[in-house]
Every structure is written in structure tokens, then in C-alpha cells.
Design a protein that fits this description.
The protein is an alpha/beta fold and 289 residues long. It has helices at residues 2-29, 79-83, 86-94, 120-135, 152-163, 189-193, 200-205, 233-245, 261-285, and strands at 33-41, 46-54, 66-70, 97-101, 145-150, 170-174, 221-227, 251-255. The chain has nine helices and eight strands.
Length: 289
């Protein structure tokens, strides 16, 4: 009898675990939807993939804000959704669309002046935005668009926002390589810009830290985040000081942490909160409530 009672308890415990597992996956099924889309770049004459996350109960009668979330060097369009799957839930919490473009292994998200096969500024900043606006119900103005990224993508997000002021109203950088000149031998930058020694002025002109003059009159909403132990911390601290000197409003976060996904998993939450506040201000000013 004792054996039968014990067996019954074990069976019931297993049934409870199975039920909990089923409820867990059912809750995921009701959450945001994740799709991989294929877009075409006319500038580079090729198909490029992107991840698109839509909030649950997506409704084409509602216009949604969009965050373009960029990966780092060596990554791809699937990095964010596979390594930080919590962003799927955040699309639901804040009710915005998240788009994760593919920036190739080392595009740095600008148009290479020496190689026409690398035009990722045109792709992400123009072609992809137009494609997303055509195929999804979006707020088609800069008050409803933000761009953010980590590492190479952090530089890319700021670069795109600075050089496409009518497209992106807000930008965020996490551990961004905001000064290319500080790393002349790393991460394929020379393949995109030419050797540093022979093209010093070009390297300076493509570095975000030297572009502040472009946004003095009308800066985008900015949030910059970098850990103390990150090798990009010194250049981020310099960017922060330059923005302060020019009285350009921005949020700046620095805390213990290195150049790692553990850090970015935490950082993205601050970025989303910042962008949500930005979007809400845009909705209120336009009378959307």
C-alpha cells in the first residue's frame, strides 16, 4: 500500500510539471510574434534577412513605433533574439515593433567609400526603413523610430541617427566603438575605410565622436551605456564629455561590466525604457494620447 501511495504521488507530481510546462509554452504562443523576413537591397543588389518582432494582438488599425536593434561585429540579424530572448516579451510590454537588421560581419553600418559592395548605411537607414513602413503598420516619422545597438552596432546606431536626422528621432549605444581611430588594426575597419595610416582624415570623419557638430542645432534623443571594464569605456567617456561641453542632452550610464552579453542583457532594458518614454512624448505631442 505504501508503495502504491508513493507511486501515486510521483505520478501526480509529474502531471503537475507537465501542466506547468504546457502553460509556459501556451503563454509564449500568446506573446509577441517573431518572423524572419527577406528584404532586397537595391544599393547592394542582394537579399538580406532581418528579424521582425511584433507585439501580440498586432492590429493593422494601430500605428506602432519601431526600434531598429543592431548587432555587433561578427554577429548577424539573429543575435539579439537568440541571445537575449527577453526582448520578445519587451515588445509586448511596450507595444512596439523591434527590427533586427543584418549588418554583415563587419559593415560598421556606413557606406564604404572604397567598396561598393558594402552600403549598409543606405540599407539600414533608408531601404530597410522603407520596406518596414510598407509592410507593417508603423508610425512613419522620426518621433516613432529609434535605432540602437551594441559594440559595432552602438557606433552604427549613433552614426545612422546623426546622418539621417529626419528618419530616426532617438538613438542608443551599448558598449559602442564610438571612435574608430582608437583601433586602427581591429574588426575589419581598414577593409571598409582603407588603411589608417594613409586615410587618417577619413577615419576621423567616419567616427561618431567627431560628428557632434552635426547635431548641435537639433540633436536626437540619446542614451549611451558602457561598462567600466569594457575596452571601449575610455572612448565612451570622451564622447560623454564632448556632449556635455556642447550642452547636448543625453542619458549616460556607466557601471561595472565588460564587453559581454551579460552586460548587454541588462543594458537593453534601460534602452527600451528610454525609447518608450521618447515614443510616449511623441504620441502626446501629436494628440494620440
Amino acid at each position: 500500500m505504501q508503495f502504491l501511495k508513493l507511486a501515486t504521488k510521483i505520478i501526480k507530481a509529474r502531471e503537475i510539471r507537465v501542466l506547468c510546462t504546457c502553460l509556459f509554452f501556451c503563454s509564449i504562443a500568446r506573446s509577441a510574434t517573431v518572423d524572419t523576413v527577406v528584404t532586397y537591397s537595391t544599393a547592394m543588389k542582394k537579399n538580406i534577412k532581418a528579424v521582425v518582432i511584433k507585439p501580440s494582438h498586432y492590429d493593422t488599425t494601430i500605428k506602432y513605433p519601431v526600434i531598429y536593434l543592431l548587432h555587433g561585429y561578427g554577429g548577424n540579424y539573429a543575435d539579439w533574439v537568440t541571445k537575449v530572448p527577453s526582448i520578445i516579451k519587451e515588445a509586448d510590454n511596450y507595444r512596439f515593433i523591434i527590427v533586427c537588421p543584418d549588418g554583415n560581419v563587419g559593415s560598421w553600418y556606413f557606406d564604404s567609400p572604397i567598396d561598393n559592395h558594402w552600403k549598409y548605411e543606405t540599407y539600414v537607414g533608408t531601404e530597410l526603413v522603407q520596406w518596414i513602413d510598407k509592410h507593417f503598420s508603423t508610425i512613419k516619422k522620426k518621433s516613432g523610430r529609434a535605432v540602437a545597438g551594441l559594440s559595432m552596432g552602438g557606433h552604427g546606431a549613433l552614426y545612422l541617427a546623426i546622418n539621417h536626422p529626419s528618419t530616426f528621432g532617438a538613438a542608443g549605444s551599448m558598449s559602442g566603438g564610438v571612435d574608430l581611430t582608437a583601433f586602427p588594426s581591429n574588426w575589419d575597419i581598414a577593409l571598409r575605410l582603407g588603411s589608417y595610416e594613409q586615410n587618417i582624415d577619413r577615419w576621423k570623419s567616419y567616427s561618431v565622436i567627431n560628428m557632434i557638430y552635426k547635431i548641435k542645432a537639433s540633436p536626437p534623443a540619446l542614451i549611451i551605456d558602457c561598462g567600466y571594464e569594457d575596452f571601449f569605456f575610455p572612448v565612451n567617456a570622451q564622447l560623454h564629455q564632448k556632449l556635455l561641453a556642447e550642452n547636448i542632452p543625453h542619458d549616460y550610464i556607466s557601471r561595472p561590466g565588460s564587453h559581454s552579453w551579460e552586460y548587454w542583457k541588462n543594458a537593453i532594458g534601460y534602452q527600451f525604457l528610454f525609447f518608450n518614454n521618447f515614443f510616449r512624448k511623441g504620441q502626446l505631442s501629436s494628440g494620440r494620447g
